[in-house]
Design brief:
This is Large ribosomal subunit protein bL17. The chain has five helices and three strands, in the order αβαααββα. By secondary structure, it is mainly alpha-helical. It has a three-stranded antiparallel sheet. The longest helix has 47 residues. The radius of gyration is 30 Å and the shape is globular.
């Protein structure tokens, strides 16, 4: 009996399970989404979210702690360079699990696990906010630049006309 079971053992020994979760976490950070079974995705979410929380503060200690879990120097640098700035303002829930049906070979329930901030289809609000801010800045800048140019053209056209009338009166 397995009373008080805290997590899914996934039918593996402890060393095999930790190695598998470490490799899956590296793949998730590197590719931003991976396709796996629902059970592994749920286990991976529990494994990777504390690592992502540690990456939000870039310090030598946090880098070493994250490296002890992932064991891949390139993935750790990717995590602290590109992923951490995007998730900096999020208080948790860095991953999303989307069920994708059943695998044809063994009918296993499959899922897609992805980093939430790297999917533009599910985050249209962020993209719209960025474009609207840019357009507002651009339009105010264009109006500010266009106004002095128009005034200068008006002054140029008035000046020669005034000179021509003065010359006629002097004659």
């Amino acid at each position: 009996m397995r009373h008080g079971k805290k997590f899914n053992h996934l039918g593996r020994t402890a060393s095999h399970r930790s190695a598998m979760l470490s490799n899956m976490a590296c793949s998730l950070i590197e590719h931003k989404r991976i396709h796996t079974t629902v059970a592994k995705a749920k286990a991976l979410r529990v494994f990777v979210e504390p690592i992502l929380t540690k990456s939000k503060e870039d310090s030598t200690h946090n880098r070493r702690v994250v490296f002890s879990y992932l064991q891949n120097k390139e993935v750790v640098s990717e995590l602290f360079r590109t992923v951490a700035p995007k998730i900096a303002n999020r208080n948790g829930g860095y991953t999303r699990i989307i069920k994708t049906g059943f695998r044809p070979g063994d009918a296993a329930d499959t899922a897609l696990i992805e980093l939430v901030d790297f999917n533009e289809l599910y985050n249209p609000n962020e993209a719209e906010k960025k474009t609207t801010r840019r357009s507002r800045r651009a339009t105010t800048t264009k109006k500010a630049e266009a106004a002095p140019v128009a005034e200068a053209k008006v002054e140029e056209t008035e000046a020669p006309v005034a000179d021509a009338t003065e010359e006629k009166t002097e004659e």
